[in-house]
Write a structure and sequence with these properties.
Elements: E1 5-6, E2 13-15, E3 22-24, H1 27-66
Antiparallel strand pairs: 1-2, 2-3
Length: 67
């Protein structure tokens, strides 16, 4: 297993001494970010569905008024 170097004043990040890559190493923080992204996608989908339902209701109302 590789040994990573901690980065000062940046918790959750480490540096790979061989490639100099900066890596995010906070698994609980990563899970939190993934959950927030999932919630954002769900909210966006719900907003789209609500807008489609509003449009359908407007169409139905206009058809009922024309009859």
């Amino acid at each position: 297993m590789k040994e990573y170097l901690p980065i000062e004043n940046e918790s959750g990040y480490v540096k790979d001494p061989y490639s100099s890559a900066i890596l995010y190493n906070d698994l609980s923080g990563l899970a939190e970010v993934k959950q927030k992204r999932k919630q954002t996608r769900q909210i966006s989908t719900m907003q789209e569905e609500i807008n489609m339902l509003k449009e359908e209701i407007i169409k139905i109302k206009s058809q009922l008024n024309l009859s």
